[in-house]
Design a protein that fits this description.
Radius of gyration: 25 Å
Number of domains: 1
Strand content: 5-15%
CATH architecture: Orthogonal Bundle
Oligomer: single chain
Cofactor: heme
GO biological process, one term: sterol metabolic process
Order of helices and strands: HHHEEHEHHHHEHHHHHHHHEEEEHHEEEE
Number of helices: 18
Organism: Kingdonia uniflora
Shape: globular
Helix content: 40-55%
Distance between the termini: 95 Å
Keywords: Heme, Iron, Membrane, Metal-binding, Monooxygenase, Oxidoreductase, Transmembrane, Transmembrane helix
Number of strands: 12
InterPro entries: Cyt_P450, Cyt_P450_CS, Cyt_P450_E_grp-I, Cyt_P450_sf
Length: 479
């Protein structure tokens, strides 16, 4: 090609190149303030360090003071926009799933599976959510109060009876794990699969909030390997239960896996693939096990710190116990009387939400508060940005269950322990059932008191109580 031809092509392309440069500069100017930091790593290590020293809220507040309620950074390998406040929560939770979709850090998606409800959008999300609610809705959960009652009483008999000192956090993890194994998997007490699964599960969740570098000896690598083993175990249970259904040796109401196996679509074919059943059973297990054990641990902690609230909770449960015969199980109607206890639980979740925050993904270029969020970027929200906002919750550091009285409803999108909008946690009622039954027997059968002066905690990423919260216990009555 002659030099004149090159020059002619340059003259033709120059306006296009100029427009692209100007557009890129214009888009760059519309991005939120802040720095993306080192590629891939960004501010991930800073956030994780702040969480492990329990200063993450302070770190984010300082960021908000510097950049405002919306800023850009890089977290866990992905460019991210951090949003803060009531309007941000509404933006995150009230979208239609076509603009801002479900998304978790790459580390969580890799460990928990790509077909879990936290990763799905649109019709897939609605289909899987509907399937889970066939088991998790109140009218179905009523059948399982007695089963959960037995698990809690058996736990107290095995792990509390005859002891004067116990460590609450690991015991609450044992309790919630046993409950989940029974109701989700149909694995009853004494089944060796329980012990195998808990080992894999604990290793699996350790690497969920990490930089997703899959190298030997990293937390992420250990979690990946544990996840593969745990998923294999669940897949084996699916095969066993499908065979039991064919032989009419099991019922859809026996546990969550059986319930999901029996759901069919309009074409009379299974509504969920085996992969979707595995991934979603795992995510429900995570929610019911880890978040509920944290709630129960910190509820005990806060009750011991507040004798007035503890006395009110105890009075509510003693009134229920007085109307029961010895050994009689709790009923759904009994749980409906535990209104004050559930307010206490909600206040505990407000002050110490088990889930620090979460992520969404921009499915296309979009704007928020005048700033551009490019397609493919993460949106990061944090519960305590509204939970501890004194303009929403006056004197936010005070433990005050009356905040959740029905007479004074909390403004929408300010209390987000269970999410909000159309994506509110489908396991809300299950968590309520799990906590209320557990608290009933713990407060009516035992007195508690601290045996450590230091009751501090960190996040990794869930709250971890110092030394697991050891307490002294004294039985009130025999089993």
């Amino acid at each position: 090609m002659s030099p004149s031809m090159y020059f002619t092509i340059f003259l033709l392309l120059f306006p296009i190149l100029l427009l692209l440069i100007m557009r890129r500069r214009k888009l760059s100017n519309k991005l939120p303030p802040g720095s993306l930091g080192i590629p891939f790593i960004g501010q991930s290590l800073d956030l994780l360090r702040a969480m492990r020293t329990n200063t993450a809220e302070k770190w984010l507040e300082e960021r908000a003071r510097k950049y405002g309620p919306i800023s850009k950074l890089t977290l866990f390998g992905t460019p991210t926009v951090f949003v803060r406040g009531k309007a941000a929560n509404k933006f995150v939770f009230n979208n239609d799933g076509e603009v801002l979709g479900n998304n978790q850090p790459k580390s969580i998606a890799r460990i928990m599976g790509s077909r879990n409800i936290l990763e799905l959008n649109g019709e897939d999300h609605r289909r899987v959510r509907g399937a889970l609610l066939t088991f998790l809705k109140p009218e179905v959960l009523k059948k399982y109060v007695g089963k959960m009652d037995k698990e809690v009483r058996n736990h107290l008999k095995v792990h509390w009876q005859g002891k004067t000192k116990i460590t609450i956090m690991p015991l609450m993890k044992t309790l919630t794990f046993d409950i989940m194994c029974s109701l989700l998997f149909g694995l009853e007490s004494g089944d060796k699969k329980r012990e195998t699964f808990v080992k894999y599960f604990m290793e699996m969740i350790e690497g969920m909030w990490t930089i997703p570098v899959n190298l030997p000896f990293t937390r992420f690598n250990r979690s990946i390997r544990a996840s593969t083993k745990a998923q294999s175990l669940v897949m084996g249970l699916i095969r066993e239960k499908r065979e039991a259904l064919l032989k009419q040796q099991a019922s859809p109401s026996d546990d969550l896996i059986l319930s999901l196996l029996c759901i069919t679509g309009e074409d009379n074919k299974p509504a969920l693939s085996d992969k979707e059943i595995v991934d979603n059973v795992m995510i429900v297990m995570l929610a019911g096990f880890d978040t509920s054990s944290v709630l129960l641990t910190f509820l005990v902690r806060l009750l011991i710190n507040d004798p007035f609230v503890y006395a009110a909770v105890l009075r509510e449960h003693e009134e229920i116990a007085e109307g029961k015969k010895s050994g009689e199980e709790l009923t759904w109607e009994d749980l409906s009387k535990m209104k004050y206890t559930w307010r206490v639980a909600n206040e505990t979740l407000r002050m110490t939400p088990p889930v620090f925050g979460g992520f969404r993904k921009a499915l296309k270029d979009l704007e928020f508060e005048g700033y551009l969020i490019p397609k493919g970027w993460q949106v990061f929200w944090v519960a305590n940005m509204t939970h501890m906002d004194e303009t929403i919750f006056p004197n936010p550091s005070k433990f005050d269950p009356s905040r959740f009285d029905q007479q004074t409803p909390v403004p929408p999108f300010c209390y987000v322990a269970f999410g909000g909008g159309p994506r509110v946690c489908p396991g809300y009622e299950f968590a309520r059932l799990e906590v209320l039954v557990s608290v009933h027997y713990m407060v009516t059968m035992y007195n508690w008191k601290f045996c450590l002066n230091d009751n501090s905690f960190i996040r990794d990423p869930m709250p971890l109580q110092n030394q697991g919260l050891p307490i002294l216990i004294e039985p009130k009555k025999s089993f």
